[in-house]
Amino acid sequence: MTKRNILLPILIFFLSLNGLRAGEGMWLPQLLQALNEGDMQTMGMKLTAEQIYSVNQGSLKDAIVHFGGFCTAEVISKEGLILTNHHCGFSAIQEHTTLEDNYLRDGFWATDKKDEKMNPDLFAKFIVRIDDVTDMILKGVKSKMTKEERQSVIDKNIQAAQKAANKESYQDVEIKPFFKGNQYFQFISVSYPDVRLVGAPPSSIGKFGADTDNWEWPRHTGDFSLFRIYSDANGLPAQPNAKNIPLKPKHSLPISLDGVEEGDFSMVFGFPGRTNEYLSASAVEQIMTVTDPARIAIRDKSLKIIDGYMRADEAIKIKYASKFASTANGWKKWIGEVQGLEKTNALGKKRAYEAEFNKRLKTSKKKFPKEYKTLISELDNVYAEMAPYALAANYQSEVTSRNVELLRVAGLMKRLTDAFDNNGAAGFNGFKGRLTGYLEGFYKDYSPMVDQDVFAALMEMYVTNLDAKYVSETVRKATMPHDNDYSKWAASMYKSTKFTDKAAVEKIFSMKPEAAVAAIKEDPAYQLIIDMQSHYNSVVAPTYDKLQTRVEDLMRVYMQAQMDVYTDKKFFPDANSTMRVTYGKIEGYEPRDAVIYKNKTYLDGMVAKYVPGDYEFDLPKKLLELEANKDYGVYSETVNGEQKVPVCFLGSNHTTGGNSGSPAIDASGNLIGLNFDRVWEGTMSDINYDRRICRNIMVDARYILFIIDKYAGAGSLIEEMELVHPKKGK
Ligand code: ARG
Ligand code: GLU
What we know:
about 50% helix; 11-stranded antiparallel β-sheet; disordered N terminus; Thrombin, subunit H; alpha+beta
């Protein structure tokens, strides 16, 4: 075969890969110049990489903040105003909500800065600079080292590097591993702890469609809220204090009034949390056939039970709304993930990729480390061995820490008695203090009746679906005195435990530590969790942890190997809550055969979904009036000769959890929208991005302005912002 003939199939393999993959990638902003600038400009971007990330002058990155460490927000005025999602600001909004001032229900707007509300737990973190410190951190690391030896050298190097970091006293330094520990980057940042609530729409706008619409397109959620960063008189971080002044930011994003169209360039800048794009086929198979299905099945059961009660009883509906939403959020995402992985043949693609990897090792003239040859087969073996342990581990955590609330509380009681056993009365009282606050909120939203049914159903699944050796004998035989009936066991358990009853727990907590500990240790729920935990810790955890450590070691080598072998491929590191840029286009997609989704939704479509009084699809009267009167201000666009207000739009930007609140930015650096979700068919982008069906969902910036201006009448906030017409050249 001539050289050309050998290369051709490889070339075709990569062309097809790249064609589908455009849009894929969560790139480090300081590396855009080297890796992405040309690509981005070809796609229509008019900026340079230096305008996105610069150490020396204000750039887009100076308008992006990590919001509380769990979401993203962006600066949109010269007075430190920031924009994030409603679901990111949710707990802050909830904190300030009372029965009289129900900001969750009615919204909140501070049109005067003195009405803005402080949030002691929030912070906004800017990234000052990102440096490659790989050489420093891996100095002295040898390939023969054990994992522990390696980690201890790295930890020492990190400490030394942090001490030596070139930074101001008010700045922070953080060093994180990338590419499975093959590279290290240092982040110099500055965090502002005075972040005040400025505005939030009512939940009927900010959470419109709630769980039914979550992860779905078409979408009509106005998922935004406004905050403001305050600094001391010198612009430096300061604890929340009335004397602080609005931050004068290095950069704030102008907001485009020109809207988006199919094919427009877009980028999303933010702090994505966690992805796994370089897994072996065996790992993906385990997710598809073992761990996701287990978690889905368990939550399926518990959600159905809770839903039944919520539909029948208004009080339970209120109590369980938020818990239901967060359990359902993961459940629905994993269902979409498995379907998406199947639909895009992720496994087949991974296997082809691995076969090609092994083939290149054999045929290449380059000398690769010997261990590369066995990587894939070793990963396959470890995952095969791990499967039953992974199943048991997922059952354990879903049942005991997530879905059965009694077992969660019993687990906390166990920590309380541990605190006593280890540190006596002082330890007990310390942990009791923290627990009391938690339980206060817990019992407010707790129904033992609901939980008892969940217990019965999930314990039955636990015993039935796990291999007998992973279930303790006590649990296996627990129903024997109850006619082998899980409901009867549950009834007896919930009747005799004290942990379902706030007053009974308070009574225990009022006793002297010794007596309280004795009472807790007598409780049947306590004895059950002790039994389940100790069986798990002796039979599952040791092997499971050992295998996971083995996977980590192999993945570090496999990651480097992929980069050594696939030199024709551009690699981006998995998300790890550090700052990233992702870019794509505004585009719709085809979710299934013969179904085409357009890229944008409008206010009239939202009104069409309106169900008066419904807890997901109700709408405020004022919004209905604005729509009826076509009172749109400058925030509408012409569609077939008619004026319409855009609400949400889609793009092929590669995002994940943590990108909530990230700005969608146009070709010239203006804000066009606010990221808040992905489409259901594409949630597998955390494992296998596929341009054909992976889309992120954004609120249109004009809808946000429309709500602030026309709905809330908070024109003073609009005046702070810089509104621009980039498409009209203004
Ligand atoms: N799916 C989005 C995310 O993962 C939104 C979640 C909040 N909304 C909800 N209905 N639970 O965070
Ligand atoms: N809603 C998610 C978040 O809170 C973003 C959606 C996603 O997972 O992409 O971060």
